[in-house]
Every structure is written in structure tokens, then in C-alpha cells.
Write a structure and sequence with these properties.
four-stranded antiparallel sheet; 0% helix
Length: 127
């Protein structure tokens, strides 16, 4: 069982940066894959990034590749999404998710491949 709480969202100007954090509680977080999602046109949610349990495997949506970096610090039970060169179209509620089974470790993972979700944190990018 894992509980996730996102933080770090806010209002930023285009071209700016934010770092989102996902604090996890639970005895086995370090062995879970994790990811970040946001709503997208025609989809309930789209994956913006995914990472394996050790951090060695990462995947990114084409729309954020080169701008966003997903990472984790397992000793602190925390995942991160570093967002640079932000654009107004990045405005969204961002959710973190945890996957105990590794089903999500491929490009563009689907929401149903994750078992646990945070409540979301709002990111707003002004033009």
C-alpha cells in the first residue's frame, strides 16, 4: 500500500521552471515504478514521464522531451518532475502515480497500469 502526495505546483511565466515532488508513504515504494500524468485533449490523462524502480529506465512524452526530467530519491521516498522551459500548453493538474508491477515501463504508459495516485498539483504557465 502506497499513499502519494504531490507538491511544488504554482504559477510561473513561460520559459520558467518548476520542480514537482511526489512524497510517498509505504514500505515498498523503492521497488515501484512511478510516473507523472496530466490531462490531454482526447484523453483522460496522458503520461508525461515514467521511471523504473532504480531510476535507470525513463520515458517521456514527445511534447516534454528535452524539457522535463523525471527522477527519484528512494531513500526519501520521493519522486520528482523537473520542468524547464515551460510553455502555456503545459498548464494542467499534474498527478503522480505508482506501479507495483512494472506494467508501466514502456513509452506512453496508460493510467490503468498504475495502482496508486496522488491528488494532483496545479501548474499554471502564463504567456
Amino acid at each position: 500500500q502506497v499513499q502519494l502526495v504531490e507538491s511544488g505546483g504554482g504559477l510561473v511565466q513561460a520559459g520558467g521552471s518548476l520542480r514537482l515532488s511526489c512524497a510517498a508513504s509505504g514500505r515498498t515504494f523503492s521497488s515501484y515504478a512511478m510516473g507523472w500524468f496530466r490531462p490531454a485533449p482526447g484523453k483522460e490523462r496522458e503520461s508525461v514521464g515514467a521511471i523504473g524502480w532504480s531510476g535507470g529506465r525513463t520515458y517521456y512524452a514527445d511534447s516534454v522531451k528535452g524539457r522535463f526530467t523525471i527522477s527519484r530519491y528512494n531513500a526519501k521516498n520521493t519522486g520528482y518532475l523537473q520542468m524547464n522551459s515551460l510553455k502555456p500548453e503545459d498548464t494542467a493538474v499534474y498527478y503522480c502515480a505508482a506501479d507495483p508491477y512494472g506494467y508501466s515501463l514502456h513509452p506512453d504508459p496508460a493510467p490503468h497500469e498504475y495502482s496508486y495516485w496522488g491528488q494532483g498539483t496545479q501548474v499554471t504557465v502564463s504567456s
